[in-house]
Amino acid sequence: MKHDPATEIQKLKQFGEFGDVNPSITDSSTFTFLGADTMVGTFHGETEGCFLYSRHWNPTNKYLSDALAAMEGTEAAWVTGSGMGAITSAILQVCSAGDHIISSVTTYGGTFAFLKNWLPRFGIEVTFVHIRNFDMIEKAFKPNTKLLYTESLTNPLLEVSDIPRLAQLTKKHHAKLMVDNTFTPMILSPFKLGADIVVYSMTKFINGKNDCVAGAICGSQEFINNLIDVNSGTAMLLGPVLDPLRSSSILKNLHTLHIRLQQHSKNATFIAAKFKEAGIRTVYPGMPEHPEHAMMTKHMNPGFGYGGMIAIDMVTAERANKLMEAMQNKGVGYLAVSLGYFKTLFSNSGSSTSSEVPAEIQKDMGLSPGLVRFSVGLDFDIQNTWNYIHEALVETKSI
Ligand code: PLP
Hints:
The chain has 15 helices and twelve strands. By secondary structure, the protein is α/β, with parallel strands linked by helices. The strands form two sheets. It has a seven-stranded mixed beta sheet with strand order 1-7-6-5-4-2-3, sandwiched between helices. The protein has a five-stranded mixed beta sheet with strand order 8-9-12-11-10, covered by helices on one side. Strand 4, helix 7 and strand 5 (about 175-180) form a beta-alpha-beta unit. Helix 3 runs parallel beside helix 10 (about 245-255) and helix 13 (about 315-330) crosses helix 15. The radius of gyration is 21 Å and the shape is globular.
């Protein structure tokens, strides 16, 4: 039976202290104990339901974490102050010096830089692979491989990871599969498809307002308990916790995610088709010619569409920049990084969110210098938006 993430969230009964329909905000960093013994027990992780200190757990963070776990179908979740806080804490919980990671070469630039430049300083080796090339992935496994890392829909090339197939490989090699599902919350449920750990930048679609930076880690209760262990948990010891005031506002936004995704998907489908008609190379997983369209259709949860992310190829960065400036001037949206916002955002990935990736690797992964990544907004009249884009294309002699 298919997982139904929107209904799982809707079914939650999370009341506040006074029956508030929005759970109370616990605006407190520390918590009192009526008995000294209970405090000792809480330090040892023995007293279920007791709150100790908000870097460890805060009731408001727990409400949001429980909602995310319901969405993912995992036993537990933990929320962080950024997507990078989630990714780095989760990776460092799984891997130690002497371990090996296999990662998709196409990942968000910050993740790529962490894997390529930062982890080797601490004796963790990383091999980058093309996530569509299963021979290459299989050959990359070593006896000390602990983790295979990928994004469900890769940033910025929009390749779809075949999560069940990757999960089979990681199980065979006694490694874990970690999936960043930032581009496709609700649409894909990586844990249900076989991943061990799911990470998010909630800065994007989950929150949807571009008013904060936040992240999440979803997985087994054992993994989340390990993350917040007072002696050895990376989340507890590196301290990337999310502020509870933000958790409260993100939780409210999470309840409208399913509706927003439908509109993002509808608008992106429309714009992708128009770019294609205009003769511009367009990548959108909802298009039948996308290499993983059929696979994604098989794996996705029905009802949310293929998401709001599309990529077009303007061939050179100069042409991309001219078009983006013209689109911004006409009110199509903003020339800005990030995504999942109610307005359309566009950026030239090679020179922005993937600029951490060296030019030769960008070339090897097939990232065109002219790639413009769009996060299509919630526009009511998408034909009108296209009219502006069309004017910008004509004005900049792009078509
Ligand atoms: N993962 C993906 C796919 C992203 O696009 C980003 C940011 O752009 C991140 C993770 C990092 O998230 P944050 O900026 O919330 O730290």
